[in-house]
Each structure stands twice: as C-alpha cells, then as structure tokens.
Design brief:
The protein is α/β, with parallel strands linked by helices. It contains 18 helices and 18 strands. Strands 12-11-10-13-14-15-16-17-18 form a nine-stranded mixed β-sheet, with helices on both faces. Strands 4-3-2-5-6-7-9 form a seven-stranded parallel β-sheet, sandwiched between helices. Strands 1-8 form a two-stranded parallel sheet. The mean pLDDT is about 95.
C-alpha cells in the first residue's frame, strides 16, 4: 500500500471506510479530536484560537476542533465563511448544528458567519486553524475566502492548516491564486502528493495524524474506488469515451468474445472493435449490431490477422487478446507479435495466457490468470496463504514489469509498486464465461484508467454484480443474468 495518497485516493479511502461500516462522521470526530489534542500538547499556553471553516468536510473538522478545544479551556473564535445553508456535507452540517448550540451556552466560544469580505477583520489570536478548503482550487478564490486567507497570512498568530493549506492544489502542490502560508500542516491518515511537491514555505512542518481508518479500506477494493472511474465529458464526441479492440474466438468458443464485448460495452465506452476468424465473425456480428467486426481468413487466428490488427490498433485506446482463441501455434505467433508491437494498454486473458512467454510481458500489459493458468505462465505454484500470494505476485510484477490479476476466492492484484485485494464474488461464478466478462470490463476501464486500476476495479465490479445476482436468483444464475445487472 502507498505511503503517499492523491486526493482521489484519499476520497476513495474515506468512502471505503464507510463501505466497511465505519460512518464518515466517526472519521470527522477522530480528525477534530486528534488535531485539538495536538494543539493542546504542543501549545498549552496559547489559549486564544481562531478557526476559519469552509462548508465542506474540512470545515466540519474545524467545528469538531472548536468543540474539543473548548473542553480544554481554550477561548475559540469560529468563523464560518459562508451561509450555514451552504453546508452540503451531512457530517459537517450536523457538527455545525452542534457547535451552534454550544455557542448559545459557552462564553468561551464566539461563532461568526462571514458572507462578505467587509466582515473579515485583522486577527490577533495566538493560533489560527485553517479549515477552509480541502480540495483543489481552479482560478481565483472567491470572497470572503480570499480576504480570510489574506487576514490569516498577515496575522502574527501561529497558523495550522488542516490536511492541506487552503488555496493549494492537494494533488500537485500548485498555488494558482493565493494560499494560506502555514507554520504547520496536520494532514490526516497519510501524506498527500501535493504536500510532497509543494514549496516548504507554504506547508511548514508536516505532521501525519492517524484518524482510525482501518487497513482494509486501502488494502481491499471498495465502493469508494469507483470514484476513480471518470464520467463522460458533456462535450465529448464519438470515440472520446473509449474504444477497444478484442481479438479472439475460434469455431468452438464464439461466446467468449461476445461475453467480453458485451461486458466492455456495459462500462459506457463508445466503440468495440473485434477481430475474429471468418468461421466466427458472422455469428458474432449478428449477435449485436454495435460490435464492429473485422473478419480475417481461416478457422483460427493467425498472422493473417496482423494487418487488420495494425489498422485497428491506431483507432482504439486498449486491446484484449485471448478470449476463446484456442491454442493453435499460428495463434501463438500472432499474439506474440502483437505483444512485441503494441504500446497500447493490453489485457491478456484465457488461451493467450498459455500461448505467451512471461519474458514478453511489459509495463503496458495486464494478465488475468486463475491458479492453473498462473502456473502455466509463470511456472510457479500459487501459495495457500494470502500473504504469500501477495509476496509472490509483487515479486513477479516487479520482475516482469507488468500488472497481474490472480483470480480466486480473494483476488490478488499487483503492479510494480502496489497491490490490492478484492473479496467480492461468490462460488456461483464458476460458470463458464465469467473470466471473459472480467477481461471485457478491464479492457474498457483501461481506456481511461491505469491498467492497475482497471484490474482491481473490474474485479470488484464483476464480483459485486454477481453478489447482487446471487441475492436475487440463488446459485442457479447464468452469464446473461450478470450481464443484465452490469
């Protein structure tokens, strides 16, 4: 697991924690409590604190910090830089309602709602807590946030930013307009990429605070990881939302390509191209008119398909080989030539795993074996213990510079520098065709995501879908049932 997270990875981890039955309001409470404890431990004599809060989760942390500091005898001025009705985050809204009640009863709290820059005044507190913005900023900051940041930066107080200094891009550390200049940044759960890349003068001393996020929320794929799948741009045109090429099929396994293609389309991509031998092509074409099928000579795939591949490769974003292709030597020649030629994201599945050498694998490749295919490809037995599987796959991913998705009761997904586990799915998925669905989802997601992300997201999506089908139909479900639910 990574030591440094991007903003989207942190959001996914938060949501995964909720998916794992820990409410996000618990994390907000933990964050506010830990930050207040830090202030009490490190600045016990500085009892006058100003907290500037925005309307998002960062602002909610500020409300909790205020509540805890009051319990330690601090005098707190809390500034909400917007109207209360603009607080859309449910956890933040609940904590604001709580601190509003406390404001009516505790003489050490002064709560102010700031809606205009004229209401922002110089601040001579001992400590200022910046809990305004936790997300990236594009362009100039709006008022009264801009004036509040000026006041914070002109103040003689010690400035402590929550998670990242407001105004700084948490992904790359850039400052487009202006940013809080913090003496200290207290970042939550793990280090953020923007803090690593930022100028030291903006972030000051960085301290990472544990807020109780369990390991499972990062190690296992969860609902939050789906945030990494981008939505189509409203100005996009045909092909902008992903095009894939699937190369496979022989007369005995026509359905494999169809399953993979249908699964790919279920992920919202625009175009699916298919190269299949003429013995299969017409049947595949008749199944769904959305498929763009290129027929090549012969009953099985061979080097006769290579020119068609070169032509279509230029038109697609990702490629899948192996679905129902069979194990003929001429098919092996074609697949090995494709692997050595293309730089596009390439998913290698099913029969193709038995036709290639691991020495052919590269950084643009994802392989999706089950245990038997894994043994044939890597000449390694799959260990029984999960931790041993992780260790072996990470070693092989680094050695062959590729992504591996090992299918099993718990799927293990590795890249050169990371790993993920997936526990969705059930024993009903032993029916023929589920591997083709997985490969189709993966190649579709690889048009917009990294291959590693495509691997673990497809594993989660397929397993979660099959679990929903199981709830409705029991164990006698079929591939078409999963496809409908996808």
């Amino acid at each position: 697991m990574k030591d440094v997270l991007t903003p989207i990875e942190m959001r996914a981890t938060d949501k995964n924690t909720e998916y794992n039955h820990i409410p996000t309001i618990v994390l907000m409470e933990n964050a506010g409590s830990k930050i207040s404890d830090y202030i009490v431990s490190n600045y016990p004599e500085k009892k006058k604190v100003s907290i500037y809060s925005g309307t998002g989760g960062n602002g909610g942390d500020g409300f909790v910090i205020a509540r805890h500091l009051l319990n330690h005898g601090y005098k707190v001025r809390l500034f909400l830089l917007s109207k209360p009705e603009n607080i859309k985050n449910g956890d933040s809204r609940l904590n604001f309602e709580s601190i509003s009640v406390i404001d009516q009863t505790d003489k050490n709290l002064r709560l102010s709602v700031i809606t205009d820059s004229s209401q922002v005044a110089p601040d001579n507190s001992d400590i200022i807590v910046d809990a305004i913005l936790g997300t990236g900023v594009n362009g100039k900051l709006r008022e009264p946030i801009s004036s509040a940041i000026d006041t914070i930066n002109y103040s003689p107080a010690i400035v402590i930013s929550v998670d990242v200094p407001s105004g700084m891009n948490p992904e790359n550390g850039a400052v487009m307009d202006k940013s809080v200049v913090a003496h200290e940044t207290l970042t939550l759960h793990k280090m953020k990429t923007g803090l690593e890349k930022a100028q030291q003068s903006y972030v000051g001393k960085i301290t990472v605070l544990d807020i109780g996020i369990p390991r499972v929320s990062e190690e296992y794929v969860g609902q939050g990881d789906l945030l990494k799948i981008g939505l189509p741009d409203k100005c996009s045109h045909k092909g902008d939302n992903g095009s894939v090429l699937i190369i496979g099929s022989n007369p005995d396994y026509i359905g494999a390509v169809i399953f993979a293609a249908e699964a790919a389309l279920s992920q919202g991509i625009d175009l699916v191209f298919i190269i299949a031998p003429e013995s299969s092509a017409d049947i595949i074409k008749e199944y769904n008119p959305e498929f763009i099928v290129r027929s090549v000579p012969g009953k099985v795939l061979s080097m006769d398909a290579y020119d068609a591949f070169l032509d279509l490769e230029k038109r697609v974003d990702a490629i899948l080989i192996g679905s129902g292709s069979g194990l003929m030597e001429e098919t092996s020649d074609l697949f090995n030539e494709i692997i050595s030629t293309t730089k596009k994201p390439l998913v290698i599945d099913a029969d193709a795993l038995k036709l290639i050498s691991p020495d052919m694998l590269t950084e643009n490749v994802l392989v999706t074996p089950h245990a038997y295919e894994f043994k044939q490809l890597f000449d390694e037995e799959v260990p029984d213990k999960l931790e041993d599987k992780i260790e072996l796959l990470r070693k092989l991913s680094e050695e062959y510079n590729c992504q591996i998705l090992l299918k099993g009761v718990i799927d293990v997904i590795t890249s050169r520098d990371d790993y993920k586990l997936n526990r969705t799915g059930n024993q009903g998925m032993t029916i023929g065709g589920t591997g083709d669905l997985l490969a189709g989802i993966a190649v579709a997601l690889a048009t917009k995501n990294t291959l590693f992300e495509a691997a673990y997201l497809s594993s989660f999506i397929l397993g979660q879908t099959a679990d929903k089908v199981l709830e409705e139909k029991g164990f006698n479900y079929r591939i078409k049932d999963i496809l409908k639910k996808l």
